[in-house]
Structure formats: C-alpha cells, structure tokens
Amino acid sequence: MKKKSIRKYFTIILLAVVLAFVFRSQLFASYIVNGESMEPTLYDGNLLMVNKVVYDLTDVDRFDIIVFHANDTDDYVKRVIGLPGDDIVYKNDKLFINGEYMKEPFLKSFKKASAIRPYTGDFTLKEATGKTTVPEGKLFVMGDNRKDSLDSRKIGFIPIDTVVGKVDITYWPFSDLQLGFG
C-alpha cells in the first residue's frame, strides 16, 4: 500500500515540476530591473514577470512596458511610445502623436514631484531618429525616467521581433508588488 502511495505522490510531484518548467520557460520569464531608466515606475533590483506569449495573440499597445533584446547580451525594459506609422513630437512637456495630444497618466504624479522642468525635453521624431514616422516592424520606446534613460531617442527604433514580452507583474520586493501597468 505504501509503494502505491509513494508512486502516486512522485507522479504528481514530477508532473508539477514538468508543468512548472514548461510554464516558466515557454509562457513567462523572470527579469531583474538593472538601472534607473524606468524610475519611478520600476526600480533597480525589481523582479518582473514578463508575459512571453501575449504578443503572439495581440499587437503591442502604446504605453505597454516591454522587455526587448537591446543587443546579444543585454535586455532593456522600456515603455512603448510610438507604433509603426506614428509621428512623435514632445513639446512643452506634452506628447503629441500624429498631431494629437496624448495623456501620459502614468507620469502625472512623477512630473509633480520632480524638481526637473520640463520632465521630458522637447524633441521631434526626426530630430531623435532622422525619420519622420516610426517604420513598419519597429517601435519607439522611452524610459519613464526621461532625463536618465537610454532609449529610442539615443538608440533609435527597436525591431518588434526583438520584444521578449510584456511586463505584467512586479513581484519583488513584495512592497512593490504590482499587477499590470497603465
């Protein structure tokens, strides 16, 4: 009787380990924020859960926080600002996409608390990248810490196919636990 019970538990544990491995490796990935470019939304050392399959099912949305391969060794965490076909202008600390003012509610409290004025310096897409619109298959991304972010204003557009996934959860430290970002 004990051998059957042991086999049963072993089978359940083995199945759980296999499912956890598949779940972890195929659907989600864990990342550590390295640096201050997404502060105050994400902080250096935060642990993130990245949904790797969401963009197989839907398109990337403006203001999503994503992880992408910046090069062969580094992955970056940034916020999507521009989608293919967009013209981007930042003037007087306001974002305009295709001539339309776009609210950035995720920056509201940070702008108020910041001693730095303007929070985001003026630029046009052409000044930042040499292009007048975001090319097909590319994204324009920025860090929330606009004064200290290595983003599309410096590195140019990022290919959509380098996107690892969407940041859905910050789970460490527990005091910074957050589900979803807006």
Description:
This protein starts with a helix and ends with a strand. The longest helix is centred in the first third of the chain and has 26 residues, at 2-27. The model has no long low-confidence stretch (mean pLDDT 83). 25% of the residues lie in helices and 30% in strands. It has one domain: Ribbon (Umud Fragment, subunit A). By secondary structure, the chain is an alpha+beta fold. The radius of gyration is 20 Å and the shape is elongated. A hairpin with a 2-residue loop joins strand 6 and strand 7 (100-102). It has helices at 2-27, 54-57, 108-113, 125-129, 152-155, and strands at residues 28-32, 47-51, 65-69, 75-82, 88-91, 94-97, 100-102, 123-124, 138-142, 158-159, 163-172, 178-179.
Q: What's the CATH topology label? A: Umud Fragment, subunit A
Low-pLDDT sequence parts: none
**Mean pLDDT score, rounded?**
83
| Helix amount | 10-25%
Gross geometry: elongated
SSE sequence, one letter per element: HEEHEEEEEHEHEHEEE
CATH class: Mainly Beta
How many E-type strands? 12
The CATH architecture can be named as: Ribbon
Write down the domain tally: 1
Strand content: 25-35%
| The CATH H-level homologous superfamily | Umud Fragment, subunit A
Instruction: Determine the number of helices (DSSP H or I, runs of at least 4 residues).
Output: 5
